[in-house]
UniProtKB/TrEMBL annotation:
InterPro entries per UniProt: Aldolase_TIM, Radical_SAM_PqqE_MftC-like, rSAM_sf
SUPFAM superfamilies: Radical SAM enzymes (SSF102114)
PANTHER family according to UniProt: PQQA PEPTIDE CYCLASE (PTHR11228:SF7), RADICAL SAM DOMAIN PROTEIN (PTHR11228)
Name of the featured protein: Radical SAM core domain-containing protein
Provenance organism: Pseudomonas lactucae
C-alpha cells in the first residue's frame, strides 16, 4: 500500500459533480523518480530511485482508469527511460482515457516518439532554458540540441 501512496497522486479534474461514481476523473501516476539529467534544482537522481512495478500499475489502472477521463504518466524523474515504458503506455491506452506525458525529450528513441504522436498522446516538454549554455547549466548536460529532433516527431 505504501508503494501506491508513494507513486500515485489522485485528484479530481474539476469541482463539478461527476456522473461517474466517486472515483477521480483525472489520474496522475508517478512512474519513476529516476532521471537521465542532473538538474541542480531537482531531487531526482540518474542512479537512485525506484520505478513503479508494471504489475502494480496494471492493478491501479484496472481500479481507477475505467472511470477516468485523463491519465498523466509523469514522474519526478523521466518516465521514458523506464525499461518497458511502452508496456505502461499500452496499459493506459487500453482504457478510454486521454493520456499525457511530461518529458525532457532527451531520450533518443525515435520510434517511441513517433508512436506517442500516432496515438495522440499529449506530450509536454520541459525546457527550462532557450540557450545551450543556460540549458547545460540548469540541466547538467549539453542536451538542448538533442531535444529538437524529438519535438519534430
Amino acid at each position: 500500500m505504501n508503494e501506491v501512496i508513494q507513486f500515485i497522486q489522485v485528484q479530481s479534474a474539476c469541482n463539478q459533480p461527476s456522473t461517474r461514481a466517486e472515483l477521480p476523473r483525472a489520474i496522475y501516476v508517478e512512474l519513476t523518480d529516476r532521471c537521465n539529467l542532473t538538474c541542480p534544482m531537482c531531487r531526482c537522481s540518474p542512479v537512485k530511485g525506484t520505478v513503479l512495478p508494471l504489475p502494480l500499475f496494471k492493478e491501479m489502472a484496472a481500479a481507477l482508469f475505467p472511470s477516468a477521463e485523463f491519465v498523466d504518466l509523469r514522474g519526478w524523474g523521466e518516465s521514458t527511460i523506464i525499461p518497458g515504458f511502452l508496456d505502461y503506455l499500452d496499459v493506459a491506452l487500453a482504457y478510454p482515457v486521454k493520456v499525457k506525458l511530461i518529458t525532457n525529450a532527451v531520450v533518443r528513441k525515435p520510434l517511441m516518439w513517433e508512436r506517442l504522436g500516432r496515438e495522440g498522446i499529449t506530450v509536454g516538454v520541459s525546457f527550462d532554458a532557450a540557450t545551450a549554455a543556460l540549458f547545460r547549466e540548469l540541466r547538467g548536460a549539453p542536451t538542448l540540441n538533442r531535444c529538437w529532433p524529438t519535438c519534430a516527431c
